[in-house]
Amino acid sequence: MRTLNDIAEEYEFLEGDERYRLLIEIGRDLEPMPDALKTDATLVRGCSASVWVYPTGDAGKLHFLADSNAAITKGIVALVIAAVQDQPAAEVAALDFTAALEPFDLRNQLSSNRTQGLPNMIALVQQHAARIAAT
């Protein structure tokens, strides 16, 4: 998976539909999430599409599996995961996602339906990281 900085560099030089294509592409690059992990417990609430996020790892290195049944939404969750993948739990819990995702200007680039679940994706990731960091 590409880093968030690498994705942001490419995104900056694109416009309109090209940005959508990049989001779809990074969504396809997500590590496959087994269907058995796509349960009510891993479902992110409040998303217009179905989104699942499954955390693994420990305090030293969190790893996330994620998927969505919608291509653009899968790209959005891929951005969230790219910001935190394989990072220490304490860093993930403290990450300023607003600043990290600012280069993508998602609120202005995408419809509100596509971004409405973003805060819930972020909250799920950070809550898990905070729980792991505290142990």
TrEMBL record:
Gene3D superfamilies reported in the protein's UniProt record: 3.90.1010.10
Fe-S metabolism associated domain sequence ranges: 14-127
UniProt xrefs under Pfam families: SufE
Domain of life: Bacteria
Record SUPFAM superfamilies: SufE/NifU (SSF82649)
InterPro entries, alphabetized: Fe-S_metab-assoc_dom
UniProt similarity note: Belongs to the SufE family.
Name of the featured protein: SufE family protein
